[in-house]
Specification:
- Helices cover about 30% and strands about 25% of the residues.
- It has an eight-stranded mixed beta sheet with strand order 9-8-5-3-4-10-11-20.
- Helix 2 crosses helix 3 and helix 10 packs across helix 11.
């Protein structure tokens, strides 16, 4: 494992620079195994180049919003490389999105070209898009789309044929459209690539915020390329202890920062990636035994489920090492009490992953479990009073604020003054303490954000979906501790008289409107008069959580 502190690199300046450096180290090297198919660097480069040419032939260029709706597959990487190479902004979309979430995001992000998987598990994205935009039924994919509900969207290309008249074709069709097109000729693509600046916007990642509407976090070319290089140089947070020749099974989605950094920084350290649509414990164990996976994604509960398989053997565990620091607890249980404990890291989408940590240093035993280390190089931390915004003394609790090189450009369609304070700090909503020596202690969230299985859920977003049901008069959503998922989403419902609602009906209602991880795992029914309230008649969620705690167990 790398040791010592490390600094923000000056290179690479752009995503394409990062990729070409890896390509130059060995075009024939294995880059990934996608559901059993092996891809070398040069094969993935050829696919990315073809898609880039097709995008340009279809009118994309500097600043175009290119939507990428794929699970972890080679096509995700190829589309991301293609979009950012020509100066476009890769809008990374969640495969969990239900039709209303897709409709909101494609409209809000002003997506011009959508590159899409036909299906994943039991999801069919042509059906979801048709449900999101009913006007597609009247559209003809042979001409650019014109949808009032997504006014900038001009075409949708899938990775395989679909029976829908409104599609523009497949990714192969997209790549073929560059043939004979002067503006998509190789010299023009190279000229466009050369014109991409390190300061250009490169990625837009949607994240649940403290309010109901998801927010588009915008990061620049330099931030993305250098954060990948920075985390790879650290090799002690995300990812952890990666060596050349390792094979990383990445189940954490690439459209979430944790999976993205693990994959891209792993490639920087000359590891190969393994993608598999099957995320079951059996599939993970098969990847270890048959594909040589040296680490696997997941929380401790995921790893424990794999270890609990009947045919699991001790030598299987001996082949594995932690993929990131949050897995250390699992491995430490089997390594003995003298196994060195490293700190976790603290970060967010707005800082493209960690802003704090203890890279390369083993913690002394007296350091507490809730420490998240020091500000990483290039970042500044400040603790303020949540009400006044005034800084608080060292060691006192307050809201964590961050600024520095990894901080986002801003939220898409939000003025800068609505994103940052007068000193350029972003207020995270995390309740923390900053000790005199600079060590950060995390104490929880100031708001009601729910953290479940690594994903953030806005309670307000779930409540609004519930209140759209005519049989629901009131709804309160909050998180409750869960040993396997950090927290679970809990909803307390005040039903209308005669609604006939039960827990499963409520869950299905939410599932049709929001991503699956936002669906309440427990739904409880109460009368309005039973709920604890403030003098202004608002539901007191902490008191309500205490009231129903025994019902959740």
């Amino acid at each position: 494992m790398d040791d010592g502190r490390f600094r923000v690199p000056r290179e690479p300046a752009r995503i394409d620079d990062w990729w070409r450096a890896g390509l130059a180290r060995g075009p024939a090297r294995l880059v990934l195994i996608d559901n059993g198919r092996e891809w070398t660097f040069v094969q993935l480069e050829e696919r990315a180049a073809g898609i880039a040419g097709g995008l340009v032939a279809q009118g994309a260029g500097k600043g175009s919003r290119i939507g990428i709706l794929f699970p972890n597959r080679a096509e995700w990487l190829a589309c991301w490389l293609a979009a950012t190479r020509i100066g476009g902004i890769a809008v990374t979309l969640s495969t969990f999105f239900a039709p209303p979430e897709l409709a909101f995001t494609l409209h809000h992000a002003d997506v011009t070209h959508l590159l899409c998987a036909r299906g994943y598990l039991d999801h069919r994205y042509d059906a979801r898009l048709a449900a999101a935009f009913p006007a597609l039924a009247e559209a003809d994919g042979a001409v650019p789309l014109a949808l009032e509900a997504a006014p900038h969207l001009r075409g949708v290309w899938f990775d395989a044929p679909v029976e829908a008249r409104w599609t523009a074709g497949t990714l192969d069709d997209l790549a073929s459209s560059a043939q004979g097109c002067a503006r998509a000729a190789p010299p023009m693509i190279e000229a466009m690539r050369a014109a991409v600046s390190s300061a250009d916007s490169a990625m837009m990642i949607y994240t649940s915020g403290s309010t109901a509407a998801p927010k588009g976090v915008v990061h620049s070319q330099a931030t993305v390329a250098r954060k990948i290089a920075f985390m790879a140089a650290a090799n002690s947070l995300i990812p952890l202890d990666v060596e050349p020749g390792d094979r990383l099974l990445i189940n954490s989605p690439l459209f979430w920062v944790g999976g993205f950094l693990t994959a891209m920084s792993g490639l920087t350290r000359d590891a190969a990636l393994i993608f598999d649509d099957d995320h079951s414990p059996k599939a993970m164990l098969r990847a270890v035994r048959e594909l040589g996976a040296t680490s696997v994604s997941g929380a401790e509960s995921v790893l424990r489920n794999m270890r609990d398989l009947e045919d699991f053997r001790d030598e299987d565990l001996a082949r594995l090492k932690p993929q990131h620091t949050s897995q250390l607890a699992f491995f430490n249980r089997f390594a003995g009490p003298d196994h060195p404990r490293l700190t976790n890291s603290l970060g967010m989408t707005e800082t493209l992953g960690p802003h704090s940590g203890d890279p390369g240093f083993v913690l002394p035993p007296e350091i507490g479990e809730n420490t998240f280390g020091f500000a990483l190089d290039g970042m500044e931390l400040r603790i303020v009073d949540p009400a006044s915004g005034a800084p608080v003394p060292a060691g006192e609790p307050g809201e964590l604020c961050v600024r520095g090189v990894w901080l986002m450009e801003g939220f898409y369609k939000r003025e800068r003054r609505d994103c940052f304070d007068a000193d350029g700090f972003y207020h995270t909503g995390d309740k923390c303490r900053l000790m005199p020596e600079g060590r950060l202690l995390f104490e929880g969230r100031l708001g009601g954000m729910i953290k479940t299985s690594g994903a953030n859920v806005s309670p307000e977003e779930v409540e609004l979906a519930l209140l759209d049901h005519s049989g629901i008069l009131e709804a309160a959503v909050f998180g409750m501790p869960d040993p396997g998922r950090d927290e679970i989403v809990v909803a307390v419902i005040v039903p209308a008289s005669g609604s006939g609602l039960d827990e499963e009906a409520v869950r299905q209602w939410v599932k049709a409107r929001l991503s699956s991880f936002k669906v309440p795992r427990r739904v409880l029914f109460h009368q309005s008069t039973q709920l604890p309230r403030t003098p202004s008649n608002k539901i007191r969620k902490p008191a309500l959580a205490d009231m129903v705690r025994n019902d959740i167990r």
